[in-house]
Amino acid sequence: MKAVALTHYLPITDPNSFLDVELPKPTALGRDLLVAVKAVSVNPVDTKVRSPKDTVEETPRVLGWDASGVVEAVGPEVTLFKPGDAVYYAGDITRAGSNSKFQLVDERIVGIKPKSLNFAEAAALPLTTITAYESFFDRLGIDRDGANKGQALLIIGAGGGVGSIGIQLAKAAGLVVIATASRPETVSWVKELGADHVVNHRQPMVEQVRALGFQHVDHIAIFNDMRHWDTAVELIRPQGAIVTIDDTNLPMPMAGMKTKAASLHWELMFTRAMFETPDMIEQHKLLTYVSGEIDAGRIRTTVSEVLSPINAQNMRAAHKLIETGTAKGKIVVEGF
User: Fold this and answer.
1) Which residues form a coiled coil (predicted)?
2) Per-residue pLDDT averaged across 86-101, rounded?
3) Residue of 74, 250, 305, 310 with fewest CB within 10 Å of its CB?
4) Measured between alpha carbons, how far is 163 from 135 in angstroms, rounded to an integer?
């Protein structure tokens, strides 16, 4: 089968950073689906895993943790899907990725593809949707169905992939969303997605948020990096909660969190699959729920650019765009 893979971890400007290869077609066993991949999207995790290091892979390694496609075959223990079903998913970072014509993925982390979206539009969503959903509703304990209506959520780094779907999930839950963005195009983007207020995270944020009338906010999601930690601690309300997706090495003073009895939560959407947690199937449920919300017109795809076909050249181009740190929404690569 066709695939885009690597053997050496190189700068994306190196033509050997990705290679077009032929690999054996895998066989579905257990609870695995064999999916014929139609489109993939690229996330910061892809660029972090591919980043230069001395490791050399003896066999080509396939990256990619976002896909949509059609179920080609199912393992003997599969109960949720059948061949021919259209699906979308983010996969498992410990297994071969989605940048191949066929991929094995556990059915418990796969959702039913939104019927109203094409494969490219659907591929933009899974990883960021799971990350934002788990951040808000599992980690911060916000009620998905509106019990926290009117509470304020500050999303730091709202213009990227996670923030783009996060704004929509938060608005659907009835929250007042304060989004941060620093460029005219991302300010326009987050407003288009439903943000109630926008502040610039490249300028002092405490003053900006308080100028909007919020002395403190109920919830904070840090979806870029932890250089904003002190700001988040200052703005979170007493007994409030902060969630972050950044694996930082920066100092994180905790005295302010203790004084406020505030809580900090980490989110990694791969955790359930990596450890096969008892609630692993929750990712199937949440992706299928969001699929229904999309088909009902309450949530939209966050794709901003589509490249075609899926090959080494276009994968290098997509990684370059992500590494600029200025992409809005999601970059998708479609079709073999």
Assistant:
1) none
2) 97
3) 250
4) 11
Rounded to the nearest 10 degrees, how much is the dihedral formed by the CA atoms of 158, 139, 126, 223? 20
- Pair 235, 197: CB distance under 8 Å: no
Q: Which CATH architecture has domain 129-266?
A: 3-Layer(aba) Sandwich (3.40)
Rounded mean pLDDT of 80-104? 97
CATH topology of domain 2-125+276-334: Quinone Oxidoreductase; Chain A, domain 1 (3.90.180)
Domain boundary assignment for the chain = 2-125+276-334, 129-266
pLDDT at 327 over 80: no
| 106 bridge partner residues | 32
SS in 3 state form for the chain?
Answer: CEEEEEEEECCCCCCCCCEEEECCCCCCCCCEEEEEEEEEEECHHHHHHHCCEEEEEEEEECCCCCEEEEEEEECCCCCCCCCCCEEEECCCCCCCCCCECEEEEEHHHEEECCCCCCHHHHHCCHHHHHHHHHHHHHHCCCCCCCCCCCCEEEEECCCCHHHHHHHHHHHHCCCEEEEECCCHHHHHHHHHCCCCEEECCCCCHHHHHHHCCCCCEEEEEECCCHHHHHHHHHHEEEEEEEEECCCCCCCCCCHHHHHHCCEEEECCCCHHHHHCCCCCCHHHHHHHHHHHHHHCCCCCCCEEEEECCCCHHHHHHHHHHHHCCCCCCEEEEECC
**What pLDDT does residue 325 have?**
80
Residues 122-128, mean pLDDT to the nearest whole number: 97
Q: Using an 8 Å Cβ cutoff, are 34 and 12 in contact?
A: no
